[in-house]
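Structure tokens please, single chain.
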Amino acid sequence: MKVGVHAMRFDGVEPPQLRDELARVGEEVERAGVAWLSVMDHFFQMERAGFPHTDPMLEAYTTLGYLAGRTETVELGVLVTGVTYRYPGLLAKTVATLDVLSGGRAALGLGAAWYEREHDALGVPFPPLAERFERLEETLQICAQMFDPADEGPYEGTHYRLAETVCRPLPLHHPTVMVGGSGERKTLRLVAQYADACNLFVSDREEMAHKLAVLRGHCADVGRDPAEIRVTALTSAPELDSGDLDGFVARVGPFADLGVDTMIVRPPKTAPSEWIRERVAPVVPRLAELDGA
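Here you go.
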């Protein structure tokens, strides 16, 4: 099992020191052998996570561009991009640029979006949920076409119409397409139909086993081999925060038996680079030993 880091808080240091702290985060994840480094696609901090919406929040793709220049090996992604925030063709162009400038390390994480307050505050339309899922599916189709050098023609959908899908330079590799979310009827169906990876936020092994069974059912419906889909999970890490590394390994280790490829943890706000060095780095080799268990 691999380890990923998801940077979701920027209130641990003052803004003038953020760039230096993010550079240290990049250095520490690479030194530790962390496989994935992501940020959120939000413009306000998440109130539903218990934080003030006025807490600092960096724009996702600008941040990843900076991290691309400070790292060499770690996969870079957004966990996940809200489909409402960017026109799909421009999103595909952004991710292709990130892939080229990172040397082929970009991932494309997508979700249906949910944070209505930041939409209203910044003047971004927030359609009903059913329409957001329709837009999510069209965005997945558009990005696939944008990354395909054999198909630069038009795209005609219900919500988006592109006269051309030219994307030059193309990504150096096809960015990993990740659909985030655990919804059984729509989200996991989109994973089965379009995605290279999924990201699930579940509380225990039994719930994970259930979600993966649902995903396998959707794969069967569309004729997809579920082994083609990389399974990742986002988890809080109170054991790491308290220094109980054995407890963290004991809790997340059983997920490897289910086929979870990458366990993604969220640093606390204070000195995340130090937390990665002292708490995450020691568990990376221990979880790696669980592969194939």
